[in-house]
Amino acid sequence: MNSVRGLLSASVISVQNSCFIYPACQKCFSRLILDSRRFNCLKCGCTGEAKDTSYRYRLSLKIADTNDLFDITVFGSCLDPLFGVTAEDLQRCIQDFNQLSGETNTDASPGVLVQAVETCFIGKRFIFGV
């Protein structure tokens, strides 16, 4: 893996998926396996009660600079200012919305949220640390 880091000014072409938040291990930030009462991290072995699960942003984007297309994923609290809330607060809002609307897919973001994220990001230029 190349250890050279830099900044890339690029425009967002598309949002690659509709799942912007994931249950994250507090130790290694890997995706947790959740059931109704417990969570388990397959990477580091961390376990706990589902009610204590932390959430983290993961925004997968297709971006373009003047010459190339890139698939990138932006993780973590750097997205808090762009969403206006922490990932945990947004997760609570999504859960409340899904309960009110009768949505059974707990991983799905409401369509209106997906549309809002697309409107806010697609066509906009950002500086990415890569």
TrEMBL record:
Pfam families: Rep_fac-A_C. One of its GO terms (cellular component) is cytoplasm. Signal peptide: none annotated. Residues 9-95 form the Replication factor A C-terminal domain. SUPFAM superfamilies: Nucleic acid-binding proteins. GO terms for molecular function: DNA binding; zinc ion binding. GO terms for biological process: negative regulation of intrinsic apoptotic signaling pathway in response to DNA damage. The keyword Metal-binding applies. Keywords: DNA-binding, Metal-binding, Zinc, Zinc-finger. Belongs to the replication factor A protein 1 family. This is DDIAS protein. The gene is Ddias.
